[in-house]
Amino acid sequence: MKLIVGLGNPGTEYALTRHNIGFLVMEKVAEDNSIKFRFNKRFNALVGEGAIGGEKAFLIMPQTFMNLSGHSVRPALNWLKLKANDMFVVMDDIALPFGSIRIKLKGSSGGHKGLSSIIDSISTQEFSRMRLGILGRRKIRDLSNYVLGRFTKSEQKNLQAILDSASQACECWVTEGVNAAMNKFNKNK
Question: Where do the domains of the chain lie, and which CATH numbers do they carry?
Fold first, then answer.
């Protein structure tokens, strides 16, 4: 069993914002693998369970707001009886060019509040993660408004291809492991 966590903020006002690209990837993974989401009160998250490449997988999208994501992840890991290295977290990254994918075996939060919450809640950084670049321009005056802003028309044209690649990267992580996923998908767009 593998756990894939997509980070974002709940609510329709955040649905197509840059900060919610983790949710968009989870929706694409679910679509590609015929997995349906339902709300799980125990985890305060949307959850889906199914097979990805023949392997059993559990998908979650915490409904706690980004900076409290660990409040959903920790109970999910405990209930599933999984170790942190059985988890793959998908999130946005403002430091990477739009469309870039960076998969890492482990590491710090890099200032990402959702990732910080998970690290604090499970007391380890020893889990794989995929950062998706959302930096679409050089000068950003208000970082919060930018990450919570909607994708531009130009970004929307490329978004489907990015989500396709990210979904394939999740499947690769499940079926072949983190090293194979890093080798195949860590590229600048």
Answer: 2-185 (3.40.50.1470)
DSSP annotation of 24? H
Q: In the beta sheet, which residues pair with residue 90?
A: 6, 130
Instruction: List residues with catalytic annotation.
Output: 19
- Comparing CA positions, the residue from 39, 65, 53, 67 lying closest to residue 2 is 53
Q: What are phi and psi of 158, to 5 degrees?
A: -95, -10
- Tell me the pTM: 0.94
CB 60 within 8 A of CB 151: no
Contact 75, 42 (CB under 8 A): yes
* Tens-digit pLDDT profile for residues 14-49: 988 999 999 999 999 999 999 999 999 999 999 999
d(CA 100, CA 109): 18
CA dihedral sign, ordered 56, 186, 124, 47? negative
Among 128, 129, 136, CA closest to 189: 136
